[in-house]
Amino acid sequence: MGTDKPVENKKQEVLKMERFIMDGFQIQIPLDELTKRLCLADEEDVELMRKKLAEALAIACPKALYRICKVNGIEDDTVQIEGKEFHSKVLAARLKDVHHVFAYVVTCGTEVDEWSRKEKDYIVNLWLDILKEMILGEARIQFQTALCERYGIPKLSSMGPGSGNLDTWPIAQQRPLFELLENVTEDTGVVLTASYLMHPTKSVSGVLFPSDKEFVTCSLCKRTNCQNRREPYKEHTDI
Fold first, then answer.
1. Is domain 3-220 in CATH 3.40.109.40, yes or no?
2. Of 106, 168, 169, 230, which has the fewest beta carbons less than 10 angstroms from its beta carbon?
3. Residue 112 contacts residue 60 (beta carbons within 8 Å)
């Protein structure tokens, strides 16, 4: 489980705008899960990835940065969070009765990203990209679980700029999100590009908020060829 610094008050009712860095995630990825994900059957390929997996887990240092933020107000499709404006009809609907959110960034870490970039073989590099994605996924689960336990929140849902369809929450809203979090690059190594993409690419950002049932933005996305889809597309009548 990740550890965060400094230690924060655990009671949800006294949440205030504070900022924390979480690291120390215990990442474990079974070899059979990795080879299944990569569809590997050749013994040489499996042995190669056994070595790569061991190297990656030895060097990987995923990080999370989060900030407890107050929702100041909502009007139409505009959400005010700690003085920053976010424009999304879906976000506004989801935060209608929410008073605080966790703005966050989670990354696989610069260490394993830089290590993977040294690989010269194109195919192996693609395999390492999926491995980094799995490392990020494990860190993200541990991060969200830690928040639920620490603040006594039964269930959290997440939304991020660029998730869902193009108009769900425009990716350009990464800029005010990073401004809200402050010093993201210094504390996590994550760099926001001019086109609002993140490096390392295996990084995620957005806001987490309490919800009665988990909301997954995949359900708003009409793309049919996404290997990371967590939920099928469906029409939403409450947005």
1. yes
2. 230
3. yes
Any long-range contacts for 70-75 (C-beta under 8 Å, 24+ apart)?
70/16, 70/17, 70/99, 70/100, 71/95, 71/98, 71/99, 71/100, 71/101
Q: Residue 74, SS3?
A: strand
Give CA torsion, residues 194, 175, 91, 201, to 10 deg. Answer: 50
Regarding pTM above 0.90, the answer is no
Quick one: how far is CA 153 from the chain centroid?
A: 18
Q: How far apart are CA 113 and CA 116, in angstroms?
A: 5
Q: Is residue 191 within a helix (H) or strand (E), and if so which, with residue range? A: strand 191-192
Are the C-beta atoms of 58 and 203 separated by less than 8 Å? no
Inter-residue contact 220 to 90 (CB < 8 Å): yes
Question: Could you read off the pLDDT of 187-231 as tens digits, one per residue?
Answer: 999 999 999 999 999 999 999 999 886 666 655 656 566 565 455
